[in-house]
Each structure stands twice: as C-alpha cells, then as structure tokens.
Amino acid sequence: MSTSVVVIIGLGLGTYALKAAGPLLLGGRRLPTAVERIAQLLPAALLASLVVVSTVAGDRALVVDARLAGVVAGGVALRLRAPFIVVVAVAVAVTGVVRALLG
Amino acid sequence: MDDRTRRRRIHRQALSISLALAPFGIVFGVACVEAGLGIAEAVGFSAIVFTGSAQFAAVGVLGDGGGALAAIGAGLLLNIRSLAFGVLLAPSLTGRVGTRALLAQLVIDESTAVATVQDEPRWRRYGFLAGGLAVFAVWNLTTVAGVLLASVDDGFITDLGLDAAAPAAFLALLWPRLVGDGGREGRRIAIAGGLVAAAAVPFAPPGIPILLAGLGVLAARTTREVPS
Q1: Is the pLDDT of residue A29 over 70?
Q2: Structural domain of residue A12, as residue ranges?
C-alpha cells in the first residue's frame, strides 16, 4: 500500500474517532476544562508552524525565496481585512512576479 | 419567525459558508498535485478525512517527503478541536447509533458554526445538516477542480507562484487567532510554534518540525498551568 493510501485510511479513522466521540459516547456531558483549553490553543501553534515550514523549508534547510515575499504580501492583505480568496490571490501573484523578476 | 423563513435563512448561511471555502478546496487540489498525489487520492482525503486543516497538514508533510506516521500525527494534532465540536453538538445529534455514526462524519468547523448560531435548539440539527452537506459537496467538487487545474501543466505551479497558496491559506486561517480578544495569547503561541518549527527544519525529518511545535507549546502550557 502506498504511503498516501496509508495516510488517508489512518488519518480518516483517527479524524472520525475524534468527530464521533462526542455524539456516540459522551451524550450531553462536557469535556474536562484542561482538554478544552488545549484544543483552543493548539491550532495557533500548529498553523504558525505550517506557515513557517511551507514558506521557508527546503531540503533539510531554511530557504528564502519568492514564496516569502508572497506570504508577507498575503499578511498585508489580511491586515487590510481582505477576504480569504484575495489573500491567497495576492500571495500567489506576488510570488509569481518576484520569481519571474529574479529569473 | 415562521418555519419557512427560518429554513431559508439557514440555507443562505450554509451556502455562503460553503462558497467561502471553494477557493480553499481548489488550493487543496493544487497542493495534492504538488505533493505528487492523483485525483483519487485527493478525493479520498476530501471525502474520507473531510477536515480541511488536517488534510492540508498531512499533504504538506507528504509533499516534503515525510512518512505516514508524521503525516497522520500532524493532521490529528491539528484536529483535536473536532473532539470539542462533537461534544458541543452531541445534544443536537440524537437518534439511533447508525444515524449518529453517519452524522458524525459531518462534524467540521463550518457545520458547528451554522448549528451553534441557531438560537432555538430544535433548529441546530437542521443547521448542522445544511452546513455539513453544503460544505461536503463544495469541498469535494473544488478539490477535483484544483487537481485538474494543476494537472494541466506541472511547471505552472511554481511559474505562477501557486506554491505560495498553501502558506497564505494557513496564514489566513491563523489570522483570527492573532487579532481581537485573546489575540495576545494567540500571538505568543504562534510565535513560539513558528520558532520551534524553523529551528527544527535543518535537523528533523520532514513533518516532524510541525509535530514538535505542537507538542512543545502543549508541554509549556500544561506545565505552567499545573499550580493554578
């Protein structure tokens, strides 16, 4: 089985277990506060690390290239309260232009 | 408000929230092609995993050459919040075990949002279903569109700068946690997570920096909060 099929099945089962635990097992009871806190905080750390890794990670090294300019431009668009699609479009356009200019 | 007006309002909410995700679905399809996945695998992710952030994280790890465990771990860690959503929604998702098991697959950010904004409890289940089904349809269709778009010509991803689409999408998802009430804590956590990931990239296999960032922040928070 290829790695991606293993990931689809494994992640699919794991994700389903997380989604279904409440409706199937807990009924109306609430989670412990500590677990709720962690569920609230974790996404900020993980999303930030995903931004960093997908922007500057190369083959076992930090690489600064046109992607960084695009992501910074996307950040400026977010600051100006641009909608999701505009943020992504700005990042893509700036990356494309900077890459073309750098040759 | 009569039932018809209420139903129409829920349909509008479900439609607008699912259309807002359309570009994200296209970006996911592009990210799949970039990671070397085909259309069946892309739809496998969107239909079976059906949780945007976990899908992006796992495909990102695969694209960097990471292993299955790192990809699954990154996706699951990002998705722990589904547990809280399921618990929150449980009172509205009643019925036989089989019914509840089917409904559970639709537990995502957007269906939770549409359900919880209904002020009358009896409409929450309807809002959950409308939001969940609308997003499921749009998400899978746009995933296919993204794969087809990116498959036309593989050089076009870097030529057009589409490799910046995923990091920009992550940043847009992160943004609401950095501003407004509670933004200060969000910024501190995000900076810590970003630094841990950047520091780990040169030393750790692909995918591991993301896990380390999550686990590191989790450990720091838990130990600090034990005394209180």
Answers
A1: no
A2: 1-30
Whether A96 is in a domain gets the answer: no
Instruction: State the pTM of this model.
Output: 0.72
Q: Tell me how far apart the alpha carbons of residues A90 and A88 are, in angstroms, rounded to a whole number.
A: 6
Name the domain count of chain A.
1
Q: Is residue A24 part of a domain?
A: yes
Q: Is the ipTM of this complex over 0.90?
A: no
Contact A47 B177 (CB under 8 A): yes
CA distances from B104 to A15, A40, B24, B86 (A): 10, 20, 22, 7
Asked, for residue A42, whether it belongs to a domain, the answer is: no
Q: Which of residues 49-68 of B touch A (CB under 8 A)?
A: 49-51, 53-58, 60, 62, 64, 67-68
* pLDDT digit string, tens, across residues A9-19: 999 999 999 99
Positive or negative: CA dihedral A48, B84, B26, B11: negative
For residues B143 and B129, give the distance between their C-alpha atoms in angstroms, rounded to a whole number.
Answer: 21
